[in-house]
Amino acid sequence: MTTIHNLQASQIQTGDKLPEFALPITARLVVSAAIATQDFQDVHHDKAAAQEKGTPDIFMNILTTNGFVGRYLTDWAGPGSRIKKIRFNLGAPNYPGDTMIMSGEVKELSEENGLTLVHVEFRGKNGMGNHVSGSAIVQLADKGASK
Questions:
Q1: Is 90 helix (H, G, I), strand (E, B) or coil?
Q2: pLDDT tens, position by position, 38-60
Q3: Would 74 be classed as within a structural domain?
């Protein structure tokens, strides 16, 4: 779903749906992202330890979820966009072997200091339900930003 240009306000309206993004959840993704975010909790890399704690497998950590939400929003809005505010709740864990489908909707457009702000609601759903759901304010690139 990578955008190679900066989205402009004239291309968006309230109610627009963001393109879906499918993220296959693999053990390699869960472990490498936990290590990359310096989260060494055993439930993110050791299946036996995770099972001892009552979960069927290792699972994705919060920092990784936040990173993929940010990627989803900025891939859609373009490389010059910035996330100004984000709020989300976690739900069903992301376990290896599942796929998280990210989706979103434009709820409002506003302006601040001559820049367009897009208010988006998003969710990432896996086979068990919503893994993540929330809202964000994304600042679009300045109209003079290069493509």
A1: strand
A2: 999 999 999 999 999 999 999 99
A3: yes
